[in-house]
Amino acid sequence: MTLEKFTNAAQQFLARRVSGTKAYSLAEALTPHSIDEALSIQQAIIKLRPDNVAGWKCLLPLAEDKLIIAPIFSETMQEGEQCWLMQDNSKVRIEPEIAFVLAHDLPARDEDYSEAEINAAIGSCHMALELIQSRFADDSDVTFLERLADCLVNQGLFLGPTIDKSVAFSADKFQISIKQYEESGEVNEQIFNGVHPNPLPQLPVYWAINYMTKRGTSFKKGEAFTTGSYAGVVELDFDKNTDIDYAGVGNFRVVFKELF
Fold first, then answer.
1. pTM of the model
2. How far apart are CA 105 and CA 210, in angstroms?
């Protein structure tokens, strides 16, 4: 693929970031056929967007040809009492995670950063919700590489309260309770036996930093890394007080608002 094709693919992916949009695979000429091509399309998306990279989603690789790494953009990073996101099949779709935020830069280099260097660079840890939007039709024959190029169903990240670093670094599993409150007073609760998809939640950060810095990516102070859901995708309703509790870790309240 050429730079022009990377840019054309990126433009099409960006045009799909509209509430309720479900599209099919790109034309064959624009479809990535390798990890390098998929990540090159991601880089084209970064260049075309008006905002900056503010974070990354990552996970330890599922296989050599299934890497989990994608940028999260500053206009889609949120904190506070409300979380604005686009509906997906008329629902709020989130993944409960833990995010790690850098306190200083980690420039691109050929040599690996040690775990100690990365640990020292992590300034804070947070309860977090990855905001999910599937932009492909359910009956699409889309490939994993195309999903990777499109940033792996990410539409943003909500940063919740800070949590103790030692707690975050040992949080392989905990019970998750998500309650939504009706005007009638009825409480709808979902409970999950949360388990991180990797042995420890910080391990994907080590992999992502060393994989991407050797590809020429520099990470900056304030960028957040969110590293995988403890409960898969959770579907919720808009406009309801929502209490989210990670047992023994922390809790917060948020109201999800629809972004059109």
1. 0.95
2. 13
